[in-house]
Amino acid sequence: MGEGANRVTTVMGGGTPGKGRAFIERLREEVKGAGLLPPGERDRWALWLPVFFALGVGVYFSLDFEPPIHATAAAAGLAVLLGARLRRSAFFPAAVAAGFAVVGIFWAGFHTELARAPLLERSIGPTQVTGTILRQDRIEGPLRVVLEDATVARLAPERTPGRLRLRLASLPPGAGPGARIQVLARLAPVPQPALPGGYDPARRAFFQGIGATGFALGKARLLEPAETPGIERLRHGIAARIGEAIADPALAGIAIALTTGLRGDLPREAHEAIRDAGLAHLLAISGLHLGLVAGLVFAAVRAALALWPGVALRYPVKKWAAAAAVAAAFFYMLLAGATVPTQRAFVMVALALLAVMVDRMEIGMRLVALAALAVLALEPYALTTASFQLSFAAVVALVAVYERLAPSLSEVRARLGRGPFFLAATLLTTVVATLATAPFAAHHFGRIAAFGLAANLIAVPAAAFWIMPAAILAVLAMPLGLEAWPLAAMEAGIGAVLRTAETVAAWPGAVRRFPPMPTAGAIAAAGGGLWLCLWQTRLRLLGLAGLAAALAILAGARPPDFMADGDARLFARHAEGRLYLSKPRAGFLGRVWMEAAGSRETGSTRPGSPGLSCDPLGCTADGVAVILRHEALPEDCRRAAIVLSAVTVSHRARRRYCTEEALIVDRRRLRRLGAHAIRLTDRGPAVETDWDYRGRRPWVALAGPQ
User: Fold this and answer.
1) Are residues 427 and 305 in the same domain?
2) 152 and 101: one domain?
3) Which residue segment(s) compose the domain that 585 sits in?
4) Is 375 in contact with 343 (CB distance < 8 Å)?
5) Alpha helices, DSSP H only, in 571-701?
6) Which end of the chain is more exposed for a tag (fewer CB within 10 A), N or C?
7) How many domains does the chain have?
8) Do 40 and 21 share a domain, yes or no?
9) Quick check: 146 and 134 in contact, CB under 8 A?
């Protein structure tokens, strides 16, 4: 213990001054002796290439303008030539890293050009919409479908989006993925972010090929049934069989999510319990799920082939089993919808099995780097998603920890025994994954499950050894109509996990809410975490500075004092830990703002309320007026320093009713610049707009400053 403590104090610069200076001098000499890389890190520099590629992709998506594709292509070409020129120089690693970053910018822009399609710029309808169902899902009640090859009666073909997302009450009998339907609907542009710098549904829809959203005004009519089964029809067919066999909606929804990746049938209460208990990762089909599928298929095929000695002794049955496992994992990835965590998991599983097929068993951080590069090459936009960041944060941290512990794992296992060792490994894995993903959970969701460790100790073994094997057997038994017994076993296992989630989620303080970590904090956490995990010498400890910076940024984060959405439908004030909304029933937008404010409850807005005092005409609060109807403008605008208005305030009304110094954010400005966030400072109100963050990009439909 004493030796370990001395080592820690030496590394952190504590202890005697001589030891701290000696550590710094050793680092300096290492860097000087190797040019740019210390001797112990020369075989690790290639791990940074996907990081720099991701850096370029991130730079592209952070811009508020669209860089010309020919300029980024030329820059990428020059970067490659520079790297080739310096291949025998000590600066070769730096040149290659810079080249990967520039190529990342170009590649993200190239994918944007490939994704370009018409976007609906204004609401239209009612109008006749015809299209082929690409996929369907149910989210909290209505059915949601994505139509491709769509035609809209009131739009010219060249202005019609390639894909539309519609909400319907139901589909006609026989309709499903691959069927062509017709329905009377009202269409609208894809929603913009609820807050400046927040989640951007329009960007996600753009890369999914969706150019408009809407809702049906009547019953859909089936024009052509689906002719070919297709993977989507298979997914929904399996989901239907599971729904018929498992009566409880919550258990059936979880079983469907684990088997097919479809989460629409999961009740909100069950989803919130799973999330608050820190078990949401079980619903995202990733490494655990694909690893089990591939492992079981590999073991089953190898055991079956071993029953024929003539085959087992003459042919490489182990390699055949690995090939079968790759095929099974690929099929499962398609069945699960090929999400980012599933893609990452498949690449890693496939590379590991490929290593078996070519008689190479080295698996480690290089495998993770290849998986990250493959996912970003296929879908650069994935870098901005929570699933990519959470998934790779957990995997990188786990691989780094187990790389360090690998020399002593065999000895520990021999001392503890198989059962205790597995329990300890599960505990360690949960702790590492929770700590690694915490900054990104704080950035995207503004919440952390405080007791996720306790829930995972029960849920992860149950999923690995009970639920997933039963799910695999159920899918294999469905063609024979024998899925009842495996699904019954799966239902029992899911019930145990759900009861665990509900129990843990009900504990006091199970969820810690706070304003989401700013993007700068997430970048600092990612940089510090990667530095800590990818390097192997004491140089890696400098990554702690990035993690400390992330914590400091999170501690200094505070929500806006006032918020207004881009359609001028909802306004809010945050004060004393509560969110005061201009409408009592704010729906989805209100929930998003609650998360952004880190609030657990809304405050009363009855007349006289100290937070926000509202009547049918408008609201007032500490020199701020919220105008809901024109009639409130003459009285409220005269007394307010900040005016948030759901109606347009003309220049004449501004001069007549408002003070000259008043900040006026009216309907016209909100429609032009998008959602607004206002923070009150000693120097006056600080205003952020959606336009400030996104600017003019291919997925942005805002008009911008005029």
Assistant:
1) yes
2) no
3) 562-673
4) yes
5) 587-597, 633-636, 651-657, 667-673, 690-694
6) N
7) 5
8) no
9) yes
Q: Residue 684 falls within a domain, yes or no? A: no
pLDDT, residue 598, reads 80
Residues 364 and 442 in one domain: yes
The predicted-structure confidence for 351-364, as pLDDT tens digits, reads as follows 778 878 877 655 57
397 confidence band (pLDDT: 50, 70, 90): very high
Residues 141 and 105 in one domain: no
Residue 260 has pLDDT above 70, yes or no: yes
Residue among 498, 433, 413 at smallest CA distance from 462: 498
Owner of token pair 């495996």 = 486
For residue 648, how many other CB atoms are within 10 A of its CB?
Answer: 14
Of 473, 495, 513, the last residue of a domain is: 513
Least confident of 10-24, 53-67, 362-376: 10-24
pLDDT in tens, 131-143: 999 888 764 557 8
Do 133 and 176 lie in a common domain? yes
CA nearest neighbour of 266 among 282, 290, 278? 282
The answer to whether 141 and 126 have CB atoms below 8 angstroms apart is no
Tens of pLDDT, residue by residue over 568-597, are: 889 999 988 888 998 877 778 888 888 888
Residues 316 and 447 in one domain: yes
Which DSSP symbol is given to 619? E
Q: What is the pLDDT of residue 391?
A: 83
Helix axes of 287-306 and 317-335: crossing angle, nearest 10 degrees: 140
Quote the tokens at residue 188: 């609208």
Q: Tens digit of pLDDT for each residue in 518-536?
A: 999 999 999 999 999 998 8
- The reported pTM is 0.83
Looking at the fold, whether 436 and 577 belong to one and the same domain comes out as: no
Backbone angles phi, psi at 236, to 5 degrees: -70, -30
